[in-house]
Amino acid sequence: MTKYRNLIVSAFLAQYDPEEMIAIIERFLPLIRKYQRKLGGDEDIKQEMILTLIEAIHKCSFHSTYMREAFIVSYLAKALYYKYATLCKRLKRNQLIYLEDHPEIFVSIEDQSDIYFKEILHHLSKTQQAILYLKYYLCFTDVEIAKILKITAQGVGQARRRALEKLRHKI
Prior knowledge:
8 helices
């Protein structure tokens, strides 16, 4: 048996050994820290990822005779990735709620440092400015922007195209 399998099986079996579980967590800690950094570096995220790893170990089936190290590592890494994706969606949803409650934070032209850029943005409507800000700075989808601005996704696309066309003519 390989190192990973020995660790995972010993953590999974009835004679649960906390030291073995800690060893498994330490092996996956670089991946957990990577996802933690991508999500803002919050310690709660790290804890949720560790809990996901522990749950995945307990859900893993070791009855198969052809179970190899690669399958086990892949299964656990995918579990962490899916948790990362879920947390990304949750954080984005929280941003949406915050943005819906505070429409004044959409675009603050005064925050822009380039004077020429400020001048060009003044030629756009507030809606077009908000759409460009949400789309290209905060990376929201058209559907999410439509929910925030309470217009259709098609309207968001049209306004974005018109705004970009205005910017092309001004530049």
